[in-house]
Amino acid sequence: MFNKILVANRGEIALRVIRAAREMGIQSVAVHSTADSDAMHVRMADESVCIGPPSSAQSYLSIPSIIAACEITGAEAIHPGYGFLSENAQFVQVIEDHGLTFIGPTAEHIRVMGDKITAKDTMKKLGVPCVPGSEGGVATLEEAKSLGDEIGYPVIIKATAGGGGKGMKVAQNAAEMEKAFQTARAEGKSNFGNDEVYIEKYLTTPRHIEIQVFGDGKGRAVHLGERDCSLQRRHQKVFEEAPGPSITAEERARIGKTCADAMADINYIGAGTIEFLYENGEFYFIEMNTRLQVEHPVTEAIFGVDLVREQIRVASGLDMTFEQDTLEINGHAIEVRINAEKLPSFSPCPGTITQYHTPGGLGVRMDSALYDGYKIPPYYDSLIGKLIVHGRDRPEALARLARALGELIVDGVDTTVPLFHALLAEEAVQRGSYNIHWLEHWLETNLSDS
User: Which whole-number Å values give the CA distances from 210 to 254, 272, 410, in the listed order?
Assistant: First the structure.
């Protein structure tokens, strides 16, 4: 087991890793930019190292600075959290070249799953169901139009190196193909330095279902059920729950086994999430995230496991503490992502927290790095907290979420808390009968600037 690990991240996820390490008797090292000198993760860690100015490119994305922090402090392993360098294969390779351990999958697995075309091809070969579409990159408009006719409209054009909703455009018919194709390529080039795109059938009313997988890197892997992340705004998740209200036990077992078997076949190590669009009882692979997800707490809640602890264990060479037949779902869990944003525009709202009070009680968890007087910097993602609730069933979890939101106080900045109060009053949310487009339509009607 490691004696000391470095956490290459900030905010609530850095705290999450530091807490797991402390429970395991492992010392932690926090890295931070000059803008985060007073951040909670810096205060909570055993040691801290300033690695650069506020700009992410010069701090949290600076591989030489992070490696130097390891050498200075004697950290043996690096946990990347999510975002930043968590899915950067070059980062993993550099870590290994310096005799350190990356707490996550191999560089090769990150590389394969980081390219959507390669990932889709790999998953097909592993028996994972995929969305009908192009076999590889689509280079010309003529090829794109031909594929559109072959697959059938609507289709979606995606940048192969895309993510976060960037480089994705829908063509409802042949007349819209040229603009969608050119726009997706341009966004891919400007955001990711790669203008290659591919084309898939566009499902009209799908849900977003993701399967949590975990492997030991020795040919053994399990799944920990699914999460439903269908409530999204601009392809960004805002509300996640487990288990999915639309998934049957038979469907869960079938797709879960498919995913676990695929991960075992490639000797995957650590936590990963295989994401699907789900429509009419069928699952269609869209991408794999080779890291811990923002919404991992809902899985932890219903299975009673600590995924970060397991990540650290298997990275050090130990076995997983669970097997497939020992994993049983207990109740229902929901997470809402609370951002420092001004409604209805959802524009970032940095500022000073004048009062912060977290909700409590049975089945309530708040993952946040806020404290009274904390100044939210304007340089990073606007996520400031995750409120997670767990109940015996979905109705109890929804009631608990409403109660917890009523107790939460975050003064000094605007937040997205009012959005969740409004959503919980909606019949579709209460029933769990929505798809990935529902929230966008609801926002247009209920939360517009007009």
Answer: 13, 10, 30
The β-bridge relationship of strands 77-79 and 375-376 is unpaired
Q: Is the pLDDT of residue 132 over 90?
A: no
According to DSSP, the β-strands at 166-171 and 197-201 are unpaired
Among 167-171, 249-253, 400-404, the least confident range: 167-171
Please name the residues in contact with 203: beta carbons below 8 A apart, sequence gap of 6 or more. Answer: 131, 277, 279, 284
Query: DSSP E strands: which ranges in 290-394?
Result: 332-339, 341-342, 347-348, 351-352, 355-357, 364-368, 375-376, 383-391
Name the 3-class secondary structure at 419.
helix
Calpha distance 91→204 (Å, rounded): 38
Q: How many CB atoms lie within 10 A of CB 7?
A: 26
Answer yes or no: do 97 and 33 share one domain: yes
Can you give the C-alpha Rg of the chain in angstroms? 21
Tell me what percent of the residues of the chain surpass a pLDDT of 90.
90
Confirm whether 291 is a catalytic residue.
yes
Q: What is the pLDDT of residue 143?
A: 93
Taking the alpha carbons at both ends of the chain, their separation in whole angstroms is 57
Total number of domains in the chain = 3
180 and 153 co-located in one domain: yes
Whether the predicted pLDDT of 164 surpasses 80: no
Q: How confident is the model at residue 67, as a pLDDT?
A: 98
Q: What is the CATH number of the domain that holds 155?
A: 3.30.1490.20
The whole-number average pLDDT for the span 78-92 is 96
Query: Which of these three, 159, 176, 201, is where a domain ends?
Result: 201
From the list 352, 417, 340, 343, the residue with the least C-alpha distance to 384 is 340
For the record, the structure tokens of 447 come out as 């939360």
pLDDT of residue 449 exceeding 60: no
Q: Is residue 115 part of a domain?
A: no
**What's the confidence (pLDDT) of residue 190?**
85
Say which of 291, 313, 337, 394 is annotated catalytic: 291
Distance in angstroms (rounded) separating the CA atoms of residues 52 and 445: 44
Residue type, 91: F
Least trusted range by pLDDT, from 114-118, 137-141, 256-260: 114-118
